[in-house]
From TrEMBL, chain A:
Belongs to the bacterial solute-binding protein 1 family. Keywords: Periplasm, Signal, Transport. SUPFAM superfamilies: Periplasmic binding protein-like II (SSF53850). It comes from Kaistia dalseonensis. Its main location: periplasm. It is found in: Periplasm. InterPro entries: Bact_solute-bd_prot1, SBP. It comes from the Bacteria. This is Trehalose/maltose transport system substrate-binding protein. Residues 1-23 form the signal peptide. PANTHER family: ABC TRANSPORTER PERIPLASMIC-BINDING PROTEIN YCJN-RELATED, ARABINOSE-BINDING PROTEIN-RELATED. Gene3D superfamilies: Periplasmic binding protein-like II. Pfam families: SBP_bac_1.
From TrEMBL, chain B:
It is a multi-pass membrane protein. Residues 72-286 form the ABC transmembrane type-1 domain. This is Trehalose/maltose transport system permease protein. It is found in: Cell membrane. It comes from Kaistia dalseonensis. Belongs to the binding-protein-dependent transport system permease family. Its main location: membrane.
């Protein structure tokens, strides 16, 4: 055997070894609603790099994943590499997430909306990359508004009036199950979103200002909550007090609601073939409380981050860059109606052909209201819980809204500091 | 000889008990003492290794929190009402299926079905059946003309506790039936025959013979159910996790521990739950004289 052939053999062997070493596998958490899209992204990544990303499905109620993450992270478990994160969790998990700065090209980072990436940066570390945008939007029955010659409402009062009129006429016409407006008022995180939209769009602020002042105790906030309270039982079924996204969506997609507040994914689900309201749905930014106020959809971008205890930090960062990159965000937008967090995609013809409303949601993102997770950090959950429980009480009880807001403000004053 | 034998038996007994004792240490004593230990620290869940001792501050925090007393009240209301209904219903059904009616075996098996369904599943089933828009219960009510629109059972703050109690009664009455039925079948038949011969009316036989003889069995059943109800978590959590109207002490402890990450305060709350359950257990055992009647039997 010549030296040349030995050298060739050795080279081949080494190449094979290197190839084998490169084909590594990481473990990734993904939301239950976009599980299929994650699997697709993982397949695309495997085809591109040869590495495998095992997708683990998270609980349907996203907040139920918190204890799971906590156990894994507190145990410094290397079993999980990439985590799917809600924006409000970033403060909670900041000590356990890998700094992605320098691991992901700066140009890739800069392609995203600045404020969205900004929320993933804590104490100078980039702990998470945005995967898609979520913002509270108003869905409506285009066909019914046309039938009764109503324009898109601009204020909450206009919405309530339109909803009431169409609801009453539809009921008189024999559609007894029709309601005017469905939203979410269960005592849970979603109510914090729904309530902050009502309050912020009425000029009542976002519970706690960015510099840490408790702003919730003001007449505009009281007015907004009192207004919403008046809807329950008139244009909104009383059951709304225990509706989450899915329960309220069921009413809308059964064709029994004129207006419906939810996240962009409803565009995808309501247009699934065989549905009752295919082709009958319109979408717009949320109304405002008063002239001159901003439509304040609750902002809920979702992120991917890597565990600090991963044994594959480089690979995990590479995967995060891939799944949050333009190619995969476009795939998510076209196939699942998820709004991209990369601004360039908002003028992409393929995306716009599939999601014509995107040009309308861009202003919704610009005017969105963020929950006060930035200032409250690790205390966000208890602040939010105190807030939504108080609002749930105000909406369901006989209590005086103004007095309740005052006592809520005093409570938040004690809870707001992060540790 | 006999002492050596006795000693050998002792040794054998200890040998057999050791694995059990070790397992108990591992799965009960160790976690419990860790919880009690953390109750005296200011640890947080995201980094439990970093803490200092804070004395009884956490207990003061829990016991001065109005939220805590609110959930204690919820828990006690839920426990007393649901266990009371379950006991009465359980006794009635047990008496009924203790009689030699045709198809008794089938009834006994069928009655266990609700108890065999996992709590989460049963709660979800009822949640949908009680749904204000699509629920079958409301369809029935509207269909019968009792109301012109569906009732929002789980949204109304005064109805939701009733719903929780109702689901619990539906689910755990079979357990009561089973325990009381077992007690009934142990009662000596001669006494009833004698009473029958003496011409004592049925209700008096029940009141003066069945019930007193059955008290230990009922007592044990009530004790089990009460302890179970006091630490109820799943039912209320699945129905409406964060609703203050049905929040129990266990959900409170879970909130502090998991949602707020306050390992110290959460452990203190969990310890308080433990003490509460222990206190009620002692109370029930004392009131019903379970220790004494057990000794007499």
């Amino acid at each position: 055997m010549s030296i040349k052939s030995i050298a060739l053999g050795a080279t081949m062997f080494l190449t094979m070894m290197a190839g084998a070493a490169q084909a590594e596998s990481i473990s990734v958490f993904c939301g239950a609603t976009d599980y299929d899209l994650c699997v697709k992204a993982a397949d695309a990544w495997k085809a591109k790099t040869g590495n495998e990303a095992k997708i683990n499905k998270m609980p349907a109620l996203l907040d139920d994943a918190i204890p799971l993450y906590q156990q894994l992270l507190a145990a410094k478990s290397p079993d999980v590499d990439v985590l799917f994160l809600d924006v409000i969790w970033l403060g909670m998990f900041k000590n356990n997430l890998l700094d992605l700065k320098g691991k992901i090209p700066q140009a890739d980072i800069d392609a995203h909306f600045k404020s969205t990436v900004g929320a993933g940066e804590i104490n100078g570390e980039l702990i998470a990359m945005p995967a898609y945008m979520d913002v509270g939007l108003m869905f409506y029955r285009k066909d019914l508004l046309e039938k009764y010659g109503k324009p898109e409402p601009k204020t909450w009062d206009e919405l309530a009036a339109t909803a009431k009129e169409i609801q009453d006429k539809e009921r008189a016409a024999g559609n007894g199950d029709m309601w005017g407006y469905t939203w979410q008022a269960k005592s849970y995180e979603g109510l914090t979103c729904d309530a902050i939209e009502l309050i912020a769009s009425n000029g009542g602020g976002t519970i706690i200002s960015d510099d840490g002042k408790v702003t919730i105790d003001n007449p505009e906030a009281a007015e907004a909550i009192t207004r919403a309270k008046g809807w329950i039982g008139t244009i909104t079924p009383e059951g709304v007090l225990n509706y989450d996204e899915e329960a309220s969506r069921a009413v809308f997609e059964a064709g029994n609601s004129v207006f419906h507040r939810n996240w962009p994914y409803v565009w995808g689900t309501s247009q699934t073939a065989g549905g009752k309201i295919v082709g009958k749905v319109g979408m717009m930014p949320l109304p405002v409380g008063k002239e001159g106020q901003k439509s304040s959809g609750c902002l809920g971008p979702m992120y991917f981050g890597a565990s600090k205890y991963t044994t594959h930090p480089e690979l995990s960062a590479e995967f995060i860059a891939f799944i949050t990159g333009p190619e995969m965000q476009k795939m998510r937008a076209v196939e699942g109606a998820y709004s991209p967090s990369i601004s360039a995609l908002y003028s992409d013809p393929d995306v716009l052909a599939k999601l014509p409303f995107l040009k309308d949601t861009a202003p919704a993102f610009a005017d969105s209201a963020a929950r006060p997770s930035g200032y409250t950090g690790t205390s966000y959950n208890r602040v939010s819980q105190a807030f939504y429980r108080a609002v749930h009480d105000m909406l369901s009880g006989e209590a005086d809204v103004k007095a309740d807001l005052t006592s809520l403000a005093a409570k938040l004053e004690k809870l707001k500091e992060s540790r | 000889m006999s002492t050596r034998l006795a000693r050998r038996e002792h040794r054998a007994a200890w040998l057999f008990l050791t694995p059990l004792a070790l397992v108990m240490l591992l799965v009960a004593v160790w976690p419990l003492s860790r919880t009690v230990f953390f109750a005296f620290t200011n640890a947080y869940l995201d980094d439990p290794t970093n803490y200092s001792m804070v004395g009884i501050d956490n207990f003061i925090e829990v016991l001065t929190d109005s939220g805590w007393w609110h959930v204690v009240r919820n828990t006690l209301v839920f426990t007393s009402i649901s266990v009371a209904i379950e006991t009465v219903l359980g006794l009635a059904i047990a008496l009924l299926i203790n009689e030699a009616i045709p198809g008794r075996g089938l009834v006994r098996a069928a009655i266990l079905v609700p108890w065999a369904i996992p709590v989460v599943v049963a709660t979800k089933i009822w949640d949908w059946m009680l749904n204000d828009q699509f629920g079958v219960i409301n369809a029935l009510i509207v269909g019968l003309g009792l109301s012109d629109h569906g009732i929002a059972w789980t949204a109304n703050s005064s109805l939701i506790m009733g719903v929780v109690i109702f689901i619990d009664v539906w689910m755990t009455t079979p357990f009561m039936v089973l325990l009381i039925l077992a007690g009934l079948q142990l009662l000596p038949g001669e006494i009833f025959e004698a009473a029958h011969v003496d011409g004592i009316p049925a209700w008096k036989r029940f009141w003066s013979i069945t019930l007193p003889l059955l008290t230990p069995a009922i007592g044990v059943a009530v004790l089990f159910r009460a302890l179970d109800a006091l630490r109820m978590f799943d039912l209320a959590y699945v129905l409406s996790a964060s609703n203050e109207n049905i929040m129990t002490v266990s959900i409170y402890a879970r909130d502090r521990l998991i949602s707020y990450q306050e390992l110290g305060v959460g452990s203190a709350a969990a310890s308080c739950v433990f003490l509460l359950v222990a206190f009620v257990a002692i109370l029930i055992i004392g009131v019903l004289r379970l220790d004494r009647s057990a000794g007499a039997a």
